[in-house]
Amino acid sequence: MASEAQTGTGTRTTRTAPVTGVVRTRKRMAAAFLLPALVLLGALVVYPIGYSLYRSFYDRSGEFTGFGNYVTLFTDDTILTAIRNNAIWVVLAPTVATALGLIFAVLTERIRWGTAFKLLVFMPMAISMLAAGIVFRLVYEQDPDRGALNAVWVGVHDSFAESSAFPKAHPGQESPLKPGGGGSFVTRTTVEAGVPVALPLLGVPKEQMPEEAAPAKPAAEEPGKVTGTAWQDFTLGKGVGERNAPDASESGYPGLTVEAVKGGEVVESTKAAADGTFTLSKKADGAQLRLPASNFREPYNGVDWLGPDRALPFVGVNFVTLSVILAYVWMWAGFAMVLIAAGLAGIPRELLEAARVDGANEWQVFRRVTVPLLAPLLAVVLVTLMINVLKIFDLVFIIAPGDVRDDANVLALQLYNSFVDRDSGVASAIAVLLFLLVVPVMAFNVRRLRREVRR
Amino acid sequence: MSALGEAVEPRAGGKAEAGDKARPSAASRVAGALSSGLMRVFLLVVGLLWLVPTIGLALSSLREPADISAGGWWQVFTVPSQITFENYAHLLQDETITGSLLSTVAITVPSTLLVVVIGSLAGYAFAWMEFPGRDWWFLGVVGLLVVPVQVALLPVSQLFGRVGIFETTLGVILFHVAFGLPFAIFLLRNFFAEIPRELLEAARLDGAGELRLFLRVVMPLGGPAIASLGIFQFLWVWNDMLVALIFADSKNPPITVALQQQVRHFGDNVSILAPGAFLSMVIPLAVFFAFQRQFVSGVMAGAVK
User: Fold this and answer.
1) ipTM field
2) Across the interface, do A435 and B151 touch by the CB < 8 Å criterion?
3) Contact A336, B299 (CB under 8 A)
4) Which of A120, A130, A431 sits opposite B259 (nearest CB)?
5) pLDDT tens digit string along B85-106?
């Protein structure tokens, strides 16, 4: 009775006994309404926090180890990688997603198809990280013939640095050519104007021959000029034929670069025609002919997006982590955009107009008015994404191939691995670490709401 | 055009800008037209970039394994005859896949309903019932909003093991309900608290008890919030992989877990993974497009989760 009187509000203490009876049944009602929720929350959310804390002080076999598991956390290389990657994730992913969200929200504000754009960018949020992971595994496939990103990348790369047509070509036996260093080949002797040169090579499979390749022809003698033929001195089924002499059943090397070199300097350079013939001027007289290495370079194969290599020389971020973060940004930039767009809609037009009237340009309005007004919202978006990123698991699990999973490791993945590995001590220590990292946000939420609740 | 036309109009004096405050100057209009053109192009490109990965998945799912290993999905633009529904036909005959889709439904639907029911009851209690320490209990629940599920994996798996529901559908459902509740209670309590007091008082005066009040007044009025919550929870559970990976029956796993097992040999399994992923996306995307507004308001309310 007394306790009820104390806990009730001021008005209730003055009420009479029958009302107190009602209060008691109300209390029972309240308990009945709350019971299912409190039981589930207590058993499956609150109790695990306590148990994890307790379990984190015992090793995998159940022996007390004090802070042993926490020491492991910060000494084990694989777990340290997870911690480092998690830090990169928490800094990079929310920042990029929020920045993009802000840009998209501002730009779409006054565009008629802005809603369609927002819908498109927001859509990935509705799908599972597993599906998004599969989507990006396809994007990141290494083979430029299969992975979209490398197809584009190699295309761009090759339009700047030409790829070679004859990666496997090389001189045969008794060839007039010898290795010239760095993958190039040079003639053993110097060439003379008016005497056609033969540059026989081997090793390009028929199906890899450029389409324009025509039957090889001996070059015509031209007084005062150095002429010659570069060709594949081999025919399937017929063999070499007459060694070191072009033959109509053999194929020219169209586009092969031929350089004339005198005293280590290139004096002239040309490319072979479809039938393999080429012509150099008088300047090449007495020079050695060189087939530079660029003819034989292996084709560029793109970037190993899911590889363990460092993405940038100075930053310890590897490609695979960066690639998974990009997939995350694809999923969550829409979230930031939608929240920020809602915030933008709430900014009073007059404030922006006033700034424009004062002569501010759009960038200044954005920088000096919009962003400061949105700052609290931006903070909420950032913090929400940080909490989300802290426990990132599915995307890494799906996108990082098995052999680089340790390089892409994150805390939630490590926790799962330790769990599967039956290392309950380390798993619990990671759980406690993850929990401690969200405690500040928890406290912030509670404090913010405490004011609202006490209406 | 019109912007340019106005831009060449002669203006009186160099101080036109300061004098005509309401309208931007000619130069800034030209700049504005230019930059809005650039802006549109930029957004168009970004939109395309955002769409391409999904198109890649969709087109990959429509190609035979031999075509997939021979070249990228963009080949269907030059060789449209590559398109086939074979992969889907195979997948829908595969009992592991169809079974896993059913399993996903069997987990998602009860989880969603239970969160709505249990969350509404608690939300109502926190909003309108009097009991000691009410606000403190509510703040405690709010504190649980951000607890990562990872914290509970090990303890709950042991707990479920002892009770005998580890690796069962019931276990997965209970786990999802528990971790959905803080958000559900938070959202619904705040929404219910906005219901005008007079409505409730009037019903009370008519002799309605708490249960009647809850069912006849609060639940119907809570429609929008309940819809947001339901959609949010539905998508969260449907898309979950981690919880199912640990708690689901490994002989009858949901679609995410079933597909995950094929990822190990990704290159060889694209003809299963691409259509499988697409099938798993169909329902969430349908829900998303049908209930965008509710989804967005759920996301906004859940910005703390």
Assistant:
1) 0.85
2) yes
3) no
4) A130
5) 888 988 888 888 899 999 999 9
